[in-house]
User: What shape does this take?
Amino acid sequence: MPRLIDLGLIQLGSIILDMANIAEKSVLKAVTLYKEDNIEGKKEVFDSSSRLRFLQDEVSELTVELIARFQPVASDLRYIKSCMEISYGFSRFGRYAYDIISTLEIFGPLNLCNKSSVIAMADIVLDMMNTGVSALRLLDNSLTQKIYEMENYVDILYRKSLRECTTITNTQTGYSDNRCNISSALILKYLERISDHSCYIADSVNYIKTGISVPRR
Assistant: This one.
């Protein structure tokens, strides 16, 4: 026999998966626009970021209501707590996608810049994000180790790429412009933060499944 709280948990899960879908598309869109040096799709990214913030508020309100009405314990409480944290992570995905487009808008055009380091890191981060979302959809904590391993590589690449941003001349094109270095450094930071939040989502999935909290890195 279904419990009254189950209807709320189903609704909560539905909102979280909606956020996952919007967040994935938003970050992918932002990265694609950066690669193409194109800001024509910026409104879509901005609207997605706003939508994610709105849904995060919905999750917060629903979780408070479920806790107040049903006083959940054990796995129900773990799931509700985790949904609050996951919704924040997806909201941040939207924000960083917004920031990537804003950087492109402020510093563009960047077509003469060497984007190879940023694109290489973006590809790994997108894989991390997709793996984290898959782990959430399937509630499969076996994927978390893969995400943690990718994060270690992202951290190494981030530090290496930042050092490269301090060089005076773009060695690939021979083109020197502070806009290239500053914009690259900013976008690398946004990607690094998306990587971190992908790990936090993996942490939440592991907590839902096992009840074990992983210390924040």
Notes: The chain has one domain: 4-210. The first helix runs from residue 4 to 36. DSSP finds six helices and no strands in the chain.
